[in-house]
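Good morning C.,

I know you're traveling, so I'll keep this short. The sequence:
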Amino acid sequence: DVQLVESGGGSVQAGGSPKLTCVASGYTFSAHCMGWFRQVTGKDRETVAYIRADGYDMYTASAKGRFTISRDNSKNTLFLQMNSLKPEDSATYYCSRAPARNGECSGMFEEWGQGTQVTVS
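The tokens, ready to paste straight into the viewer:
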């Protein structure tokens, strides 16, 4: 019974720096890749960042240099520190998991939480 619960969203002024949290349960968190995604009405869900079991991370171009993804395996928790927010960052943010093999992501992100809304004005 995989559970992913996002929190930390809300209404934020442009330039703000909220931190999103995803609490995971029901699986071996430390053995999976974890990712943050976002979606706005009428558009496809897009990748924001992901982090491998070995700590390697990647970011979409619009997030690199502003956002930082991290994980605390002892607490089964994923974070997204967001800095210098822009109105175009407004979206519902989701966390998700993917299988890993030899430290690399070896499958798709297929399970999602309910999401947390971020509105930048």
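Safe travels,
E.
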